[in-house]
TrEMBL record:
F-type ATPases have 2 components, CF(1) - the catalytic core - and CF(0) - the membrane proton channel. This is ATP synthase complex subunit 8. It comes from the Eukaryota. GO terms for cellular component: mitochondrial membrane; proton-transporting ATP synthase complex. GO terms for biological process: proton motive force-driven ATP synthesis. One of its GO terms (molecular function) is proton transmembrane transporter activity. The keyword Transmembrane helix applies. It is a single-pass membrane protein. Belongs to the ATPase protein 8 family. Keywords: CF(0), Hydrogen ion transport, Ion transport, Membrane, Mitochondrion, Transmembrane, Transmembrane helix, Transport. The gene is ATP8. The chain crosses the membrane at residues 7-30. The keyword Ion transport applies. It is found in: Mitochondrion membrane.
Length: 52
């Protein structure tokens, strides 16, 4: 029915927008990034003895 086309487009837009927001929120809260403290502890400092 052509009379129902705007309502179905609106429902389709709402469904796709809600799934986009849902996956974005899930990606933000479920992915645990590696902590930068563990990567900086691997570097060892060396004392340089400069011969001038």
């Amino acid at each position: 029915m052509p009379q129902m086309a705007p309502l179905s487009w609106l429902i389709l837009f709402i469904v796709f927008s809600s799934t986009l927001i849902l996956f974005s929120v899930m990606n933000y809260f479920l992915v645990n990034p590696s902590s930068p403290q563990s990567s900086t502890s691997q570097f060892k400092t060396q004392a340089f003895n400069w011969k001038w």
